[in-house]
Amino acid sequence: MRTLPDSLRLPRSPRLPVLLTVFAFVAGVGYRLGLMLFDAPPTNSDEATMGLAALHISRGQEFPVWFYGQTYMGTLEAWLAAPLFAVAGPSTFVLRLPTLAMYALFVLLIWRLTLRLTGDHWFALLVVGLLALGSDRIVKNQLIAGGGYPEMHVAGAALALLAYDLAVGRPGRRLPRWTAWGLLAGLMVWVDPLVLPYVAGTGLVLVAFRWRELRGRAGGLLTLGALVGAAPLLVDSLVAGRNPLTAVLTASGAEQPAGWLDRLYGGLVLGPALGMGFCDPGRCAGWQLWWAVALPVLLAAAALTAWHTLRRSRADAVARVGAAVTLALVGAAVATVAAYTVSSAAGRTPVESSRYLSCLLISVPVLLWPLWRATRLGGRRSATARVAAVLVLTATLGTAIVATAGAVGRVSAVHADEGRHTTLVAALREQGVRHVYGTYWTCNRLTFASGEDVICAVVDDELRPGHDRYRPYRTAVHAAVGAAWVAPDGSPLAARLDQRLDSLDRFTVDGWHVYLPRG
User: Fold this and answer.
1) Sign of CA dihedral 24, 28, 34, 37
2) 43 close to 445: Cβ distance less than 8 angstroms
3) What is the pLDDT of residues 332-345, one digit of tens each?
């Protein structure tokens, strides 16, 4: 058996930090499982659309490549959930089981990557503990099967870890590792382009340190893996003659106006605090925005530290690779923030679109490492640096804990809302209602919750046809005799339908109005 050189060996695992890390990991998974058991975070029609795709796959009815209603964002989550649907039946809980597993795998990969880059088990505990927490925005990104976000975390961490092992020359299973790196990169091109800065950054590390190996079988297997991963996108583009890049640019709102002051505020101030889990549900208090100041400082400190190591450690290949991977993760984070800031989404919808910064969690180990090192500095001159580093680390954990508590505080309300929706579905079934009209945020959620017993077609507040992601639903409702209307209590659609009570009968189900045609 080939043994690892001393330079590639991790230090012997200290028992206490490892046990505490296991505890933090279990707590993080348990917290998210508990949220799921109480129907949190709240589901919506976008997640239901992915659920419907999984339902159709499980039945052999449809095999969608893209999220219904668009030609971008792959349906990997639906394909993962489909076998579970076939066994346990469709539900939001079952739909989220693969995303929960992806969260767990992400934390394990980040823990391993942190040990590769630093060798410090106590610091790895800190990273896992921070990732165990979860604000409203964070748990939505990690658990809701709305397309792309849970997968990006896992893929980004795995790509960085594979790049490190390949670049340092870690022996054993090298060709499978090259293939796996290519497969993950290709999958992300299909699933969601938001993680591409991390694909590019870790890919540059491989080119810089293993370009000779890439010229041989390794490069061929990497290319083959990438083609297999991106095959759904490539085949669809060839068959349908579509360019998915055009669809992505259109969906980003690039053609919609937004002022630069709004973009800068959303991208550099509000976005990082929300997107990295330091804010309460749906908003940021002024004091929680301190992370907007800390982030660029931490990025600069991590980059300078890595660059210094890269230049001073010419004889230490392992240290150079670690510094290069650190620079790749810093560069990917900067590119992610920059791309978001220049987009119109940062100016128009900064609270909701902060999810586009989800990938920044992959860079957490390299962001916090300079702070952790500063706490270990000796000497009187370093006392100020130690105190400052401890304060920032404490503020980071404290702010994340407060934001997590805010998410927990919403669980009872979310659970009650889901209970009202379940009552609505039961009432429609009892009344024999099988075809309805409703708003976008009503329709696919209702259709999925009923297992397609109730089919819904989208209308706007003026009763005009809306955006039906799955067009057969519109056809079915239009063809039905006596289709009903469903509207949330107090909504503009309900107010509009109340004006037609001379031809409609209305009954109310705790928060919902159902309108039945007379005769």
Assistant:
1) negative
2) yes
3) 999 999 999 998 88
**Residue 244: its pLDDT value, please?**
64
Q: Is 73 helix (H, G, I), strand (E, B) or coil?
A: coil
What pLDDT, on a 0 to 100 scale, did the predictor assign at position 245? Answer: 66
Q: How far is CA 337 from the centre of its chain?
A: 15
Q: Side chain identity at 396, as an amino acid letter?
A: T
Contacts of 458 (CB under 8 A, 6+ apart): 437, 438, 439, 440, 443, 465, 466, 467, 468, 474
pLDDT score of 9 more than 80: no
Q: Which residues contact 405 (CB under 8 A, 6 or more apart)?
A: none
Query: What interhelical angle do 196-214 and 174-191 show, nearest 10?
Result: 150
Distance CA 363, CA 32 (A): 21
Identify whether 41 is preceded by a cis peptide bond (ω within 30 of 0).
yes
Task: Say if CB 160 and CB 181 are below 8 A apart.
Answer: no
Q: How, if at all, do strands 484-488 and 512-517 pair?
A: antiparallel
Sign of the alpha-carbon torsion through 30, 402, 365, 152: positive
For residues 284 and 291, the answer to whether their CB atoms sit within 8 Å is no
**CA–CA separation, 463 and 47 (whole Å):** 24
The tokens describing 206, both together, are 């491989």
Sheet containing strand 512-517, edge to edge, reads 455-458, 435-438, 484-488, 512-517, 504-509
Residue by residue, DSSP assigns 200-233 as HHHHHHHHHHHHHHHTTHHHHHHHHHHHHHTHHH
Residue scoring higher pLDDT (459 or 247): 459
